[in-house]
Design goal:
single chain, 373 residues, alpha/beta, Rossmann fold, Helicase, Ruva Protein, domain 3, Zinc Finger, Delta Prime, domain 3, 3 domains, five-stranded parallel beta sheet, two-stranded antiparallel sheet, 17 helices
């Protein structure tokens, strides 16, 4: 029997288990309490933030047979059939692969029939912005004439691509990216259930790599659990994700600040000879420069930070790295950091075309370290 991946195994079964989207769950629970259910909802936001999960939870909540709670009970026949994927009245459509007018015509025929088992027939349309023009207009007609016991829940990462008339007929909820502490909290909950220990720094690195997506964080954790035995350590996470030690990048930035072009080029070639991937180095370098720029532009006092997460910026470093960052931000102007980032971004585009892999980076170093008047 195949093993469930973590993001499916631990998918929230109640609104209270959803992390980071309180503004959405609170509003939905209030609507259920007042029996003010809309006929169409739109969940939009970045990938991996819980749009489809919230759509399924809403479907469970409005069909739950336990009327004593605003949460889906996850025990009644309706909740169980939805959770187990056998509810005939919950229809999920992936608009990325079923985006034509024929699929929407089939949907329009289906809404004519009353729910077979549940109180409401629920249609969840994922990636709804990918519907063709004809399909979108056909869906609009359906939304305008939706039967009383039919609920539509649309999910999309790009609401700006949807026609305005559909947007105007939906109750819209904008989901946000999760913060590092929120993602770490979720990972800690999963690891506790899995009975696996982890270094705090390892979880911070996973959360940073996920870039606000809880699904990506859970997928990375799943990958790491298959890679390591016993406690999850920072070194294991860095090796698996192909991350460069921050110390390497910090030393390299110091050479650029001091305008030591030859030494910077030698440093780059030395790590290349050591077998460190230039692509990995480049990716880590761009990330580091971005975080330097954010720190330089912010008003966050990192001396007051007790943890290794700079909460005002949602970035993660060790305390020693934070001290180093602070020194570098004093030595660099915003414009200077911008020039570095722009130069290396251009170099990154040329790396795949260059017959000598490190040459575009070397050219960027020469430009950055050129003595200024």
């Amino acid at each position: 029997m195949s093993k469930l991946v973590l993001y499916r195994k631990y998918r929230p079964r109640k609104f209270s288990e959803v992390i980071g989207q309180d503004h959405v769950t609170r509003t939905l629970k209030n609507a259920i309490e007042r029996e003010s259910i809309a006929h169409a909802y739109l969940f939009c936001g970045p990938r991996g933030t819980g749009k489809t999960t919230l759509a399924r939870l809403l479907a469970k909540a409005i069909n739950c047979k336990d009327e004593k709670t605003l949460e889906p009970c996850d025990k009644c026949s309706s909740c169980l059939s939805i959770r187990e994927g056998r509810a005939v009245d919950l229809i999920e459509i992936d608009a990325a692969s079923h985006r034509g007018i024929d699929e929407i015509r089939e949907l329009r025929e289906g809404v004519k029939f009353t729910p077979a088992e549940l109180k409401y027939k629920v249609y969840i349309i994922d990636e709804s912005h990918q519907l063709t023009s004809g399909a979108a207009n056909a869906l609009l007609k359906t939304l305008e004439e939706a039967p009383e016991k039919v609920i539509f829940i649309l999910a999309t990462t790009e609401p700006e691509k949807m026609i305005s008339t559909i947007l105007s007929r939906c109750q819209r909820f904008d989901l946000r990216k999760l913060t590092l502490p929120e993602i770490i909290k979720r990972l800690e909950i999963i690891l506790k259930k899995e009975k696996v220990k982890s270094q705090k720094r390892a979880l911070e690195i996973i959360a940073t790599a996920a870039q606000g997506s809880i699904r990506d964080a859970e997928s990375l954790l799943d990958q790491i659990l298959n890679f390591v035995k016993g406690e999850i350590k920072e070194e294991d996470v860095r090796n698996l994700l192909g991350l460069i030690e921050t110390e390497y990048i910090s030393k390299f930035i110091d050479l650029l600040i001091e305008e030591k072009g030859k030494e910077a080029i030698d440093f780059l070639n030395d790590i290349y000879k050591e077998g460190i991937s230039l692509d990995r180095f480049y990716s880590s370098l761009i990330s580091y420069l971005r975080q330097l720029l954010l720190l330089k532009m912010s008003k966050v006092d990192i001396e007051d930070e007790d943890s290794s997460i700079i909460t005002g910026l949602n970035i993660s470093f060790t305390k020693e790295e934070i001290k180093k960052l602070k020194k570098q931000t004093k030595d660099l102007e915003e414009e200077r950091i911008g020039i570095m980032m722009e130069s290396f971004l251009k170099a990154g585009k040329l790396m795949k075309q260059s017959p000598i892999a490190q040459l575009p980076l070397e050219m960027a170093i020469v430009k950055i370290t050129k003595k200024r008047d």
